[in-house]
Amino acid sequence: MEQEGDNMDIAGDGILPQQHGPAGDGEETDPTQYYENRLKMLDSLRSAGVEPYPHKFDIAISIADYVAKYNSLGAGEHLLTVTESLAGRVMSKRVSSSKLFFYDLYGDGVKVQVMAGASYSEVAETEFYKCHSVVKRGDIVGIIGYPGRSSRGELSIFARNLILLSPCLHMLPNQRTGRCTAVAGKTTRAKADADCWVPGIGRNTEAYVLKDQETRYRQRYLDLMVNHQVRHIFRTRSRVISFIRRFLDERNFLEVETPMMNLIPGGASAKPFVTHHNELNMDLYMRIAPELHLKQLVVGGLDRVYEIGKQFRNEGFDLTHSPEFTGCEFYMAYADYNDLMELTETILSGMVMELTGSTKIKYHANGADNPPIEIDFTPPYRRIDMMQALKSIAGLDIPSDLSSDEANKYLATTCEKYGIRCSPPQTTARLLDKITGHFLEATCVNPTFIINHPEIMSPLAKWHRTQSGLTERFELFINKHEVCNAYTELNDPLVQRQRFQEQLRSRQSGDDEAMALDEAFCTALEYGLPPTGGWGMGIDRIAMLLTDSQNIKEVLLFPTMKPQLPG
Hints:
α7 (230-249) packs across α15. The chain is of the alpha+beta class. An eight-stranded mixed β-sheet has the order 8-12-13-20-19-18-17-16, sandwiched between helices. Helix content is 30%, strand content 23%. The chain contains 15 helices and 20 strands. It is elongated and about 90 Å long. It starts with a helix and ends in a 21-residue tail after the last helix. Its main location: cytoplasm. It catalyses: tRNA(Lys) + L-lysine + ATP = L-lysyl-tRNA(Lys) + AMP + diphosphate. Belongs to the class-II aminoacyl-tRNA synthetase family.
């Protein structure tokens, strides 16, 4: 009987389609009918005195630990005197006869085969078929049995007892018949684990069981359930955060938490979300950045602080932008932007090496249908002086007084000439940002620092010590997108108040992304902020690069989605 089960599934490798007999999954049924049949099954079980949702099942071992523990067993070897109990979700059911069933049981992305035969079951033979006919693909079950390998070498647990723990009432998307192996940035069909993908290697979503993006993002639990590779995207994201946290902790940074709701939206140029506090009867703003609070902590004597958390910007979203995103910001007393550039190189090169085993990754920058590009995180990173490069690379002769009408008109004319779109209001800062994106950012595939931004673009950055009108600021671009933003912090309260007032004039002219005047922050600066370097990085974009994701929603477990229309 064991040989028959193996032939049916080639030793459990899933190369042949699963068979649906009278006790099969019934997935040829209409989904609505399937759901109704499952509800009837629940009623039937309860009428027979069986609770389909038991409160507790004692597991002795996880599926991953089970596979590791018994991996050395030889083909046909059985440990009849050993009893193990484990639980997981049934992702495949194969029926040999009314007395022999095979299941693929998954737990935390790891699979083990369950062989359930009437001859070694503790359930009476008359009840055996009835017990197993209830189980469908997607059900969570508990297994009590002994370890062994089938005659063809498939590591299995031979079930003496199977307990239904939580039935799946809906049909799952159809299972693919093959497995996937990532090789040199591509995915090929082979006899290997379906979730063999590792960070830094290209992914192929065509190998997914569930492909529809809307369903995947709206029902992430279903995506995780059937697309086993997806869990590694979020494990990689978690490892990115863990690496940053460990890196900063080892350098005596203190992790802190700052308010999510604020009286004034500050710390970045962005349009905020507004909420309302009922008890205080006042509007508050969801934070767009934690910067101003963190610098106040440095004023208070916490010389090295950082925060990893959510930020909210009430703006459009596209493949690389989400209105709700995760960032890390740190502030380091007695450091400047030169120190932070070196630290950025150390963080990113170390992170990529730890997660991928190399400082080079493959990324499908031009879509999954085109070959991946290579991105090299090996330091040192290229540095582009913004204003110098706009002159030498783009051939622009921007008036030196950027606050003048002449400069604004020149930049507006440049945008029109090169077809660079800048939505109103066309302030000098916004025009410069768009022009820089067109001419400079587009050249930044490998990690590249664009440095020394004009003061008009950087209201919180300190003036450059040798170049008038500029600041000691850098942005790091990878694959043409901003990943980090950092600067030597402006700590002169008089200049900071003046910069805020300039931002206020921009806001009054219609720029709703300009910063508001924060008197509380200016007062804190008056107590003395030491020379400080401040740094911010978008976690989501780094996760996108390391998981070969072209859409930011791929690395957000529950991305913001438009409401579904009824019908």
